[in-house]
Amino acid sequence: MAWGLLVWRVPRRRGFQDRHRTNGVTTMKRAILLFAALSAGVGGCYSRPLPETCGVPGTLTLYWQNPQGGFQANGQLFGCDSGGVASVQVSVNGAVQGVFPCHGPAADGIQLTGYGDERVSVQLDAYDASSHHLYQQVQTVNTTACADTLVDARLPALAGDLTVGYQFTDSPTCAANTYIWYTLLDATRNEVIDEVGPASLNPKAIPCSSVIALQAVPFGHYTVTRIQEIQYTSATTYVSLHDTCSPQSFDHLLPGETQTVLVPPTAGGTCF
Length: 272
Description:
four-stranded mixed sheet; 1 helix
């Protein structure tokens, strides 16, 4: 199986040293600055006393996607689209600071203000357009008064084991000596994560009636794009007994799930 967890890795950002700094506080062209409200205020923000050393609160800047963001396990740049992320919720010490669009004004970063010399717990939760929870990072950060603390997000995908079941529409059992061919697409990240077919190294990898058990599959939206039961008539030829080339989709959002697709009798063709 060819999927990899979408763990963001920290690149050395081009131009980082060229950012303008004033009194140790980074100013970003497109970052959102969240001014701390009074403790009874809105938005989950809270006020902090100004550090006596300089009279200016420290800031905490969070990045979660390119060009500031990181890399997938396969080395490709990670972005909101490739990760299937629509929004990111930011929490500090358990208090939600806001939910921000992954694209748009929050694309380059979020900057929070009102921090001194302290350790804070930062949690980032990333969601798709249907509010499905796909990624999470929890990290302890040391902030500094009078300066900016920069954090590059490394959000691993939430994942769990997945069993793909199949059910024939005309029979509860498999024919003798048959095998399952199928393709499973991670529609959230537009990546085929599992496939067995005539061109596979082992086209007999899934004997019919055996389960298709996949481990640590990232949460998201999945599609079985094609599936069929085949029987070899010789070493190189086969016939299809059941097949469908019509995509069947489902959400994988919990560990240990079983998702079952339907396979009708063949109409005389093949999906591979």
